Amino acid sequence: MLKDKSVLIVDDSRPVRRFLEALVSRLGMRAATAETGAQALEAWRTSAFDLILLDLILPDIDGIQVLRTIREQDQTICIILVTASGDVQTAIEAVRQGADGYIDKDDLLAPGQQDAFQDLLERSLSLREGLSARRELEMMRADLYAMITHDLRHPLHIIQTASVTLLDESLPLSQENRRELLQMIADSVNSLIHQLDEFLDYTKIDAGFLNLQLTEVNLAEVCATVVSRIEVLAHSKHQTIQVNLPPDLPPVRADEQRVQQVLTNLLDNAVKYTPEGGQITLTAAADTTHICVTITDTGIGIPPDDLRRLFRRYGRGTGEKVRKIKGTGLGLLIAKQIIEAHGGKIWAESTEGQGSTFSFSLPRAV
Ligand code: ADP
Question: Which residues in the chain come in under a pLDDT of 50?
């Protein structure tokens, strides 16, 4: 786990720097060094490190101050203090301020202590990685809830405006105007219900309540069911859906309803984000352990920045064309949760303006 990790060694004593450099190089890590607090902060700002070995007593800035400055902005990096003997009290205080651990310089020099040093580095790095992953998840949730509540306001606002207009007896509304306003209300209510259903499904899965009912599932049958439902929509846009499945496609071990849900979302997106007259192709292939399903469209495609965020962040595409098409921005996040819960993978490739390909894999039934 330590191999190729980059470490910054901060100590004003040259022999200590040399000693630590040799120690971490032996563990396969890449080392850089700094003599002062200012140099340490400069190095941290300009390069990416996984770990900092930080002396507490530095000639310019106090080590604790260096630690605080870094921690205020960087929750990902692992920081271990290298203390002089007898400085345990300060080291404990530093751990309170966000350090991941501490090690006594004299202990390090003692024979047989280098395994303990390696253990400490491995443990601290893996704990910090866990913390960072949790923090990212929390940030993503906060993002998601803020954006969803914002997006829910849009249909509510339409309902409010349309109903106030309908109730205003001073307005000369024709029968046709009234019908249009009622239709707007009905569409907004439908959109709200759909958004809330997806949101509830997402939060349920996110909270760990995805109870998969695993059986042997014939993917060809699931594809046929979903395609027959989506074809109506595709035909209304003069699109063709071509299904090219090998005749002997082996079954997968999966929850049939959930696989249907993923396939429906991907095919529905392919139809939505492909202009009139486009082509959608559904294929599948088996290897020794998994079956991979692929949906290709000739649609608007996805810009590289949006593609990177896909499956990771709640949100709809940023392009002008996407904004005109209805959606919740949750479908792919739900699809990812479902596929990964099965032990599969989901991914996308796309060229803006030319089309997209979404693929997912599921384990074969044994
Ligand atoms: P929704 O389609 O409801 O907005 P999704 O989570 O299903 O939500 O998709 C997220 C975003 O990914 C969409 O807003 C769109 O920008 C992009 N996207 C998904 N599928 C396609 C596709 N087949 N072609 C182009 N863009 C797509």
Answer: none
